[in-house]
């Protein structure tokens, strides 16, 4: 196969540099344009010294011209900046947007959390999402030329709970998700609460009471799995680690307890990137660092009448840039796993 | 006032050494016997080099004789070891047990989680616990000579949710608690999953689905607050930090949303160690390290129909040894705050 | 004794908030004015939530008037800002400067590292510094009204090496100091290399080859100990922890190996805040967090012909604000240890 | 090329599991036998869950028979256990020993640090080591069938200092190396000082005064570079991070300062895994996590008369298992960089 030219817009942020890390390991890809905003003219060697093979690359300005003759463009831009660039890229170029702009189908979900107009939605890039009819979201991604890559929290929460909803074994109105994220999930801009001195040795929530912008995305996905509306209470917390999300997800049991684990085994049996652990083993973000794998464990708490599912992922890999590469593979008819690590870096 | 002689049984563990740290700062206390098991004969300078003033103290064997002529004995012993020693200490000696042995009132709660016989229960050492009749648990502690110090998770979860139950604004049957703890909560014995290489950069749950022994204690406390049974889904997780618990606690809204925050303000207005933060500020374990303060924030998520309360505490201070000193003060008629830090160590 | 009114200029930085933490625990002190610059009008509850007793204090502007009728003013200001304020404070007010402005005696040492004019020097606030004649720096501090508080690295390196120089057992021309500091040493301003995502899991040097501004201060101190010039190669590194300095200090053996440890024992036998550990025990920053103690271990490497001394301190306590309080005690004729913790927070 | 069968003896330790991580990414390798001792019968999914593709592999006993028909065997065994197994493996099997047993050429260096008899020495697996005659150690590795993989500290210290010695610009008798290592360098066995609660937030030395077993290995290498004996003062410290070594290495300047940087540029210009950073950029262990790259920066401190070189590496990759794979490639005439990551995982 000929080499694909893949550019990255917003390469100095964490999502962008993770995309470059993965593209460097993809056998069918040649890294194309690497663009920034305030970082134009800087070398990747200064900005992202871990990307040694690209150390002498300079960031150029983010323009449609920068991506001329590209096969694929990955957008890792601030919220609201994707639509304009995407509109100027040819229709046959595959555009993968790591931002939130094109994820929400219903305008009302959008407007309750964002103050900009709702753009439109693109096929949603979570291949493993099981839908109410038993099909999977993967079907919408084969051959696509515009894909909205999921948020990092929604990826973990959705993969954790969708099988239970699709199987009808949990109730739609009392879902609780509490998730801990490493600091890279909050991006690269310097803020007081993200300073090392403030973070190390401390945990704290950010946003309590439903205000997080990922809530409607989780609800959209679980509603897709159930075939009817689901509401979610979501609390994100910041953990003293650079990468990783651990999502503890619970819903009220509304079916046969024995059917719960079976639903997960059935849904994910053939998925290369979703791993239901054997009973007695627990997900750990440290086991999936740099890997595109999500680890799950599920339990039924009959005493409390709830299903509890815990998911561990790398927020930058499966949670962002790995999902983009996975969708690239699907859209362009490559093997879905091409270039994607399933081995993590530990300890 | 004359100086109290206070001994610590199990001083080489984290709870015991934290008790010693606090006792060294208590103006009315003289540190008495310091005992261990496998560490007998070792100096505190080797075992707990942060306790500089006690560096030359040697640990002696844990026997009743070691505590002869003591006013107070703090037990920081493995599960099951407290009852025997306590029985051999005179009735007028104040015994504060940091273990689980005497916390649960109902035998049935005990036997569902422990395989030893249920001993009995002692007054429960959480002074700020508001009860269904509006009184507080503090009443049971004044003058007591045996006190069961609460577990670290139950302290956070109970202080987070009891006011809502006492005020009748949440429902008793869909309570979810997800809490992250630093590693000191798991004690000092060497285990593979507690090694630095395994913990740093990683989060993981331990026990999913209701099996944690702290669940019945949380349920007992919330039932005390409500005046009728409460069931709880509790998931503990291990965070890459040495100290601190962040507990995210949610319950179904069952009353006037406007009454929720008012219940917390009313309950904790005069409490020296429980701090409801102003709206817009979030609890952080890093703000209470070494301090006896619990920080709380409460929010009503009307969209999801749930009350969300987040609590931050130091698991070894307010979560264990600070609570013991607070109960010592109450039991012996000292000012409740004597010797207890409200200032944390940060950053 | 009447209560002293002590103000802090620059209270929103880490040195300033650590000074407040210690002052809150000092029995003879009342916290006076608390001033800032860009933070004027903010509450300490927002800026430093660990200082619970001061949560409702608002920062006021840093002016001489703010400190009217104060007994003591602690300056925790950016480099270059201390001189002007100090000049406007009455001569009988004790002024303790945590900045670098007044530390260097010789103008030439100053001008090789700073581009501002050399102000003058104040008595140097390291009481335990042993001088060539066997006296200690403490003598200059009793009754002083202006004191220059040492830098955090120089405190560790000086206490580690001065006894060997004063005893004449090491050579002055091949001193090497390599030190690791927690991130709080770099201050509170937000910089990319101090972000949690950049720091956690990583170590890096900052400045290699002698350019660090603390080098002349270390050399000045060791020259004081020896009575003739000493040159030092100093490399600071940034460690993934919020607090603490571990300084590994080596010098060429130039005397009787057996005299080395004896020199340390003699120098520090009666020092309440410097602890030479028993042979076989190693200093750890984790053992002195929040404490004013410096731990030392010394060894003679006869094979390499060098003396190696390792020092552990809390950079904000003994390395900055604790030293200020210690000098306050000395200057105002209080017991030197008053209000200063010798117990650390661990684990 | 046909696939090579590569087995790993001691696969449950950190060096062994890192070898497996790299072998999984090597295009010419098939993972053969995976052996342990106390872990025989356990699945890699339990022991090393990050190695997802090998999750169902069970560890078998470490015997010569287990490695029948293998092309390569990587030994990651405790000190002293390699010789016996190696002696039973056929001469034409490539054996790469990650332990210390075969590194030291001179018996006297061995016996001063080890209490077992000196076995013999194998070709030393540090290809980039420049020798006094300007050749490199790589020459000894092409076609070798027994290779002693260097220790993690010696790799960093040697690459940092050898060019200066080979160029004759530093003196042999006052070399100081102070290095910080992540906890994985201390191995996987559970010890109190390696517990997360003890390590996080703390730095400490382990061994002060020349007693570390890596000292003679560093001296051997630098003597090779200089062509005459070199003595080294080496102090290792433990840093609160799982991986990485930052080595600060200094030696007395003994030549033209301008020749120093040139020596490094010349030595490493064509090395794929050693990177001399541009002036003004600093090595960081966080930039080489999981990568086989060593970052260097060199400076001449004319004031102190010393050359200072700082090296950052991943102790498990270039410091151990990456070096083994690099030597495998050299020994078996594969491209030296085959299967070895030069991209790190960051942040």
Which properties best describe this structure?
Rossmann fold, about 25% helix, 9 helices, alpha/beta, homotetramer, about 350 residues, Dihydrodipicolinate Reductase, domain 2, about 20% strand, 7-stranded mixed β-sheet, globular, NADP+ binding (chains A, B, C, D), 6-stranded parallel β-sheet
Task: Please sum up the structure shown.
The first copy, chain A, has 347 residues and is an alpha/beta fold. Helix content of chain A is 24%, strand content 20%.
Structure description:
The structure is a homotetramer of 347-residue chains. The model of chain A has no long low-confidence stretch (mean pLDDT 96). The first copy, chain A, is built from nine helices and 13 strands. Chain A has two domains: 4-150 and 318-331, NAD(P)-binding Rossmann-like Domain (Rossmann fold); 153-315, Dihydrodipicolinate Reductase, domain 2 (2-Layer Sandwich). The radius of gyration of chain A is 19 Å and the shape is globular. Helix content of chain A is 24%, strand content 20%. Chain A has helices at residues 14-24, 44-47, 82-87, 107-111, 152-166, 196-199, 215-226, 257-268, 317-331, and strands at 4-9, 29-36, 60-61, 72-75, 94-97, 146-148, 175-181, 204-205, 232-238, 245-252, 274-276, 294-301, 306-313. In chain A, strands 8-9-7-10-13-12-11 form a seven-stranded mixed beta sheet. A six-stranded parallel beta sheet of chain A has the order 3-2-1-4-5-6, with helices on one face. With 347 residues, chain A is of the alpha/beta class. Chains in contact: A-B, A-C, A-D, B-C, B-D, C-D.
